[in-house]
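Reopening: structure tokens for the S-adenosylmethionine complex, inputs below.
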Amino acid sequence: MSIPQTYDFIDYLVAKKTIDDRSLNRTVWDRLQRALVDHETIERLRVLEIGSGIGTMIERMAAGPLMRRSSMYTAVDINPDCTRAARLRLSRWAKRLGFAVSREKDASHLLEADDTRIRVDLNTGDAYALVAETAPHSCDLLLAHAFMDLIDIQTLLPGMMRLLESGGLLFLSLNFDGDTVLLPAIAPDFDDRIIQLYHRSMDERIVGGRPAGDSRTGRRLLVTLLQCKTEILAAGASDWIVYPHHRRYPLRESYFLHHIVHTIDEELAHHPEIDPEHFKTWIAKRHAQVENGELVFMAKHIDVLARKTGRK
Ligand SMILES: C[S@@+](CC[C@H](N)C(=O)[O-])C[C@H]1O[C@@H](n2cnc3c(N)ncnc32)[C@H](O)[C@@H]1O
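Re-run output (same inputs, fresh job):
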């Protein structure tokens, strides 16, 4: 594809789905499915997802771990465009998976197929406000996918743990963990410098007066979870690896790559430690590598599944 003239976050999330699908750590995912068997006696599993974007994790859960049971899935994202897109997409994928879809009076969706029944509520809201306002022990499974590296873990994670029932599960997937690779090299020293400053920009990001992310979220999560009343049931790598086949990227993955290059551009274009002309040329070369089906992109992530062990 040619270099996009404009960039759209929803399109980025759509393009990211296939990459996330193949990146999710299978061992951690399988352990989640097995751990949910222990919750089979729960009449209606209460699931909460925060930072749910366009709802791709609901689709994955409906196609696997939530099958053959009844559940109530509440998904919250701060961006109303995401909520709107998630609502628009839901019927389409749910019907494709074989669900009958009905709308309830309060705008939630009911997905039904054989012995599976999932009530889905898609809301716009802020995760910090949500954890402060929601009653403790009100959920059995708490999910966040590609989200924990955008927030202040020290503030939000204890609040998330409070929402979980004792014995409840916490599944945190695609947590960025400190490595970004763009190949082939353009100028190795300059390449390294860009990535170093890009990671630093994640560490220094402030949103709403709070730290918003960390370039080593994956490993910090593991340590923080060990300090809470949790048992880590499984953890593993979920790295993104995007590469061309015969110089073409599958589906919308070239858009995803252009978007990543664009994000680096937005973040560093006015950075005082980078020569602007050199950087502009570097960005143009990276876009050209995508266009020519030459770029390989990798980003290190960690998935973790934990169980709350005691009442807090
Ligand atoms: C990288 S996106 C991931 C979205 C989705 N989980 C996915 O992987 O497709 C992060 C999402 O978190 C949402 N977000 C960021 N800060 C938030 C907050 N404080 N409360 C709720 N959602 C938030 C953003 O709007 C965005 O949709």
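The chain has one domain: 9-308. Residues 13, 16, 50-54, 56-57, 76-79, 82, 126-128, 145-147, 150 surround S-adenosylmethionine (CB under 6 Å). Marking as resolved unless the reporter disagrees.
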